[in-house]
Amino acid sequence: MEKSTSGFEHKPFGISSARVPRAEIAKIGNAEKFTTKRLSGQFQEWDTAYFGRLEQSGISLNAAQIAAVRCTEGPLLTLAGAGSGKTSTLVCRTGYLLDVKQIDPSGILLLTFSSKAAAEMRERIAALPGISSHDAARIQARTFHSFCLWLLFSQGMQKEIFGDTRRQHIQLQQIMRELSLSDAYPPENLLALLSSYKVNLMKAEQLPESSEADRQMKRILLRYEAWKIEHDRIDFDDVLTLAYEMLQERPELLERLRRRFSHLMIDEFQDTNLLQYEIVKMIAAPRNNLMVVGDDDQTIYSFNGARSEFILEFEKLYPKARVITLDINYRSVPSIVGLGNEVIKHNKMRRNKTLRAAHNGALLPAYMRPESADDEANQIIAHINREVSAGRREYGDFAILYRSSSANRAVLEQLVIRDIPHIDYGDGRLLYEHWLVKPVIDYLRLSINRRDFDAMPGILPTLYIPRDKGMAHIQATDEARPKKGPLVHLLTLPGLKDFQLDKIRQRLEMIRSLKGLVPTAAITQIRKSFYDTYIQAGEHSEQTSHREMLKEMLDELETSAGRFDSIVSFLAFVDDMLLRNQQTAAVKSQAQGNRVALMTIHKSKGLEFPAVFLIGASEGTLPHSSALGADSLRDTRIGSEGEASYTEALEEERRLAYVAVTRAKEQLFVSSPALQRGKKAAVSRFLLSAFGQDTAASDAAIRSEYSGRRSGPDPTRFGKVRTGRMGRSGDAPSSGGNTAAQRTQSVPVWMCTTGSCVAWTRIMHSKDMASAHKPCPLCGSPMKKGRKDVPV
Ligand code: ATP
Ligand code: MG
Do 719 and 636 contact (CB within 8 A), yes or no? Predict the structure, then answer.
């Protein structure tokens, strides 16, 4: 097989005969040539002059893009594949509104998903020909959160933003201690649960109470909500909720906003949640000069409340909406566009589209099958170094993308060790600092130094002893009677029951037994003897995809430790990494600059890079194990159960693969380690099926392996939940909406009659109810009426 560059090949491992996917090259000859056009005719002179100036500055829009730019009144849905110029069209339309339509810049509201995307949008508008920097600055180009915050502040709100996830976690832990539920629930889960309610226009008071766990979580969250009110704090979801309530309660304010914002535009519309959409609809009415831009193939936040069906339902809500489709990819070389097409075409729940490429280019994506994540990291970093040394690329040309944040452990370490400039767009913490991993490290520390007082607080919750109380007792007793292992003082802590005393004795024994072990064996011992069970107990023995992520982290820790033959050397490495990372993290700027970018696929949405490495493209990672076992997971998150839940979770994973692949402009490297966290892993089905391989048989085997690994509760009990998430970082999904499981209602819907198509849309209007026929928005087949359970 032809080698592209050392270690990389032009087809995924296991593919021999298939041809390499390649997109058709589009003939873009039909756009008007404005610079040479006579200044008369269908459109007025300034229209022609505007497009002429765009052309001169190097932006030559195609016919569909021009149509979208010119469509300035009424609702407009621009649907398009990745890299087809959706954001560019939105930017040029803004310029058109200013320059040609003479719209007051302060009347334009542009909303997008991330602050990075909003900043880029502002820059691109300011760079348009004929747009003054003064005008550009007056446009509101913001994230939903920043817009709502602006609104709240403009109305005199003085609350403090309580947005730091770490502090939120600490507060929740504090509340749990007060309620004698110390560390009973991971704070991520609690926040996710609360968020899932809020983005669906519900409140903590509406949380269910059908089980003891439900009631406990509700108590914690109600107290958390009350604490925020008492302390004049609001978190990110409150920002949206408060803005929404303010608009509902103050018609005069809404009216002012409606008068002010004559034109609204939303980028990345496919990832809008209900709360965000309601806010936009309110402000846009009654003019409804609302342009939404999206790609159903890039819906990757459904665990966060995103509702891609808004795209499908837009025309229903706004029957006069114009729909413009863009299908020419300007970003990538044809082989990357082709691979993207072949990856995504296997999803059923989508509007059918095949992207063509605007440019020619001979470079082919390269594939690698390294032994492990560490081997993968070595080869990738060596490749980056070679390219940079040879002057072919700069560090800032590269991005490394991965499915879940713990998957960057090996590459991050290599970058830190080799002192390569890089920026981690995650939370900036190493695996070893995570709340889940830290207690395990602390046990290791105590095994080699039983008087390590810094390591003690971290392990106390694992003995169900409150940190403060436990440490105060240990320190006070040890001052009076010092011991080789001060943890033994816990045996005299007042109020402990016999079984707790037994547990402490067992744990002290275990700490002593770790000393002679190699670090992997020690970690395995910690996990097997109590830690895995402890984490499960914390989750009340219910299966959640969040738990899958936690397990993944501990597996990753074991993999990392496997490189060292003593606990001492492993801990020395961990400490060195922590120190170096602290120094790197001191560089605060979020701009990539000339640095290698590391981010989850979720974070990479809307971005592009000359060269992209997609790492961990193996079964169990992409698709992620949480999706492979989705039919048995407690927090099935897409609103269905069993088979449908599995299919939907897998489709979201495929969309993630599609988003990752389509970030690359010139070069794409995809790597599928043979061992993932110590276990054999096949090449991702998304790659194999893109090369025409039938993956049905292996799917059945892998699926039963992942479902079989669980002994979870009856999956149907937890079936119908839409949301839940793990923080705000664009990370992998967590549990969260799970306890809302029973809160569903049966509603009338249209369902596609084609067996292979899973589309359905809700019947919202009596007119819709009265009509006898409706074509499927996905495949065009007839639909029939029926009922479906949806979250309340
Ligand atoms: P995504 O789906 O990732 O959000 P997108 O559809 O928003 O992508 P853009 O980011 O707007 O696509 O454009 C992708 C790339 O193509 C950018 O580098 C942009 O400058 C370029 N591009 C877009 N339209 C044109 C055009 N008509 N001519 C030349 N280049 C274009
Ligand atoms: Mg975009």
Answer: yes
